[in-house]
Structure formats: C-alpha cells, structure tokens
Design goal:
The chain folds into 2 domains: about 110 residues, 2-Layer Sandwich (D-amino Acid Aminotransferase, Chain A, domain 1), CATH 3.30.470.10; about 150 residues, D-amino Acid Aminotransferase, subunit A, domain 2 (D-amino Acid Aminotransferase, Chain A, domain 2, Alpha-Beta Barrel). It has 7 helices and 15 strands. The strands form 2 sheets. Strands 7, 8, 9, 10, 11, 12, 13, 14 and 15 form a 9-stranded mixed β-sheet that branches. β14 and β15 form a beta hairpin. The chain is globular and about 55 Å long. The two termini are about 25 Å apart. The chain binds pyridoxal-5'-phosphate. The site of pyridoxal-5'-phosphate has 13 residues, from α5 and β13.
Length: about 280
C-alpha cells in the first residue's frame, strides 16, 4: 500500500478510512498522540513512544482501547503493509465517542494510526528558523491533539521559507512548533526544563543522555532569546529530524562556533537510529 490508515480495526488508505462524527477528537481535540520513525520495518524507540502515549492517556483520564503490547504489536504488523524503506508512523487515542457534550464520555478510547513513507530529515543540513510568541496554555507537557498554536507557528516558518519556528515565552525559549531546541555554550548543553511549557521529547532525552555519556555538562534551565542568538551552536531535535544544527534565525547567522560538539551529538543520535533500524543479516 502507498500509505495506511487504521481506525478501531478498520484498515485502508488514509484518504479512504473514515472517522464517525461522534469521535471526540473531531469536536474537542480530546485525545493524545505520538509518532515514531520506522526504517526497514523497525519502528525506532517504539516502546518509549508507546509508554509516553499511555502516560499522557493517564494524565487526562483516557482509557486506551488496547494494552501497550497490543498497540506495539499492531504497529509492527501494519508497517509491513506500507511500501518504502523509511516511514512515519502516527498514532492517537481519542477519549471515545458520543454526541457532542463537553463532559467526558464513558468507555474506552478510539485508536487511530496512520503510516506514510517519509525519510528522516537530512541531519547534516543546518536549519533556518524563525520566531514567534509562545501563546500556548499550561499543558504543553502532554502530547494532546490540540495543536492550533503549533499549526500557526509552523505556517509562520513556511511563510518565511524556514523549517521551524522557535517559541519565546517572556523572553525565554521554550521549544519549537514541533521540536525541542537546545544550545551549546562554552562546552555545556543548555535546554529548557521539562516543565509544563514544553513537550519532553524522546529525542531531547536522547540528546541529554548522549551529552552526559560524552562528559558534556547538561543544564536543564531556561535561556533567553539573547542567549539563543549568541549560542556556540543550536540543536533542534525531534523524532523525524533527529538532531540538526541551525545556521540562521530570522535571517541572522547563528552558531558555527562549536562544530565539533555539534557533530558529536548529531552523529551519535543519527548513528543510534541507523544502528537500531538496520536488519541483522
Ligand atoms: N516539541 C513539540 C511541541 C513536538 O510536537 C515534538 C514532536 O512532535 C517535539 C517537541 C519532539 O518530540 P520527540 O523528540 O519525542 O519527537
């Protein structure tokens, strides 16, 4: 298949599988999601992402319709049906179904999965970023379907021929529209703390781990817009970007002062991905 849509047991092309109007994702964005890259039909870090989905369900009182093992197994089977070496797997659980009423419905959630061919980004290509105000609410730590501010911010990037938009809250950098952002300064990795203003990315956690393994001190603390512009390097992370350097923000050149540090972190993360998704012969 060229792509795949799954909804509560039904499988077809994404363009053809339909979702009933009773699904609470439709009216309220009442659900949580996650996404993984997949290469050679091996979904990368799947259990970490499924665990995060279940943690997020728990935080919102959503009951997943299947166990972690069942969802992981299902994803591993479904990826085999889609053509291509690299794929992007998206999965969400909405709270459930009912006639539109704000209060919770009872019963288990609805499971939706989409799979499409997609390569990870060219990690060796540095990014152009733009900036917008972070006007989001206090649940940014939960990967919910409510993504309007991220959608608007991603469009700001596109309109400015950039690949990502940095969110700035009260002069502090939080994250980007759909990735985390960290800086290297004087040999240290600095990244916004994992509080309710950012999504604690799986790749951000991996970046921190790799830095520590390589004796690069890590500070999880807020940093300002000025510190972003004067950073030695800027690193944007997400499951589909892995870790990428940055060359300009709003057209102004940035980074380029710790190529060695950037290369170490970026390449370690890229190599882990390649290694974990290479089939044993
Ligand atoms: N921050 C936001 C707002 C995101 O939407 C995402 C990914 O979708 C990330 C960060 C990166 O998270 P991960 O590394 O788990 O893909």
């Amino acid at each position: 298949m060229k792509n795949l849509g799954y909804y509560n047991g039904r499988v077809g092309l994404i363009e053809e599988v339909s979702v009933p109007m009773t699904d609470r994702a439709f009216y309220f964005g009442d659900g949580v999601y996650d996404a993984v890259m997949c290469r050679n039909n091996i979904p990368y870090l799947l259990s970490t992402h499924v665990n995060r989905l279940f943690d997020n369900c728990h935080l919102l009182g959503i009951t997943p319709p299947k166990t972690k093992e069942e969802i992981s197994h299902l994803i591993k089977e479904l990826v085999k049906l889609v053509e291509g070496e690299e794929k992007f797997v998206y999965f969400h659980v909405s709270r459930g179904s009912g006639i539109r009423n704000h209060e919770f419905t009872s019963g288990v959630g609805n499971l939706c999965i989409t799979i499409k061919p997609q390569r990870v980004d060219d990690v060796f290509k540095k990014m152009d970023l733009t900036i917008t105000k972070d006007l989001r609410y206090g649940y940014c730590n939960i990967k919910t379907l409510n993504l309007l501010p991220s959608v608007l911010a991603a469009q700001v990037a596109k309109d400015n021929r950039c690949e990502e938009t940095v969110f700035v809250r009260d002069n502090y950098i939080t994250e980007c529209s759909h990735s985390n952002i960290s800086i290297l300064k004087n040999g240290e990795l600095i990244t916004a703390p994992a509080n309710n203003h950012i999504l604690p990315g799986v790749t951000r956690a991996h970046l921190i781990e790799v830095a520590r393994e390589n004796k690069i001190p890590v500070r999880e603390q807020n940093y300002t817009l000025e510190e972003l512009f004067s950073a030695d390097e800027i690193i944007v992370t997400s499951s589909s970007k892995l870790a990428r350097g940055v060359k300009a923000i709003c057209g102004k050149s940035v980074g380029g002062k710790d190529e060695e540090g950037l290369k170490l972190l970026r390449d370690s993360i890229y190599n882990s991905y390649i290694k974990a998704t290479t089939k044993a012969i």
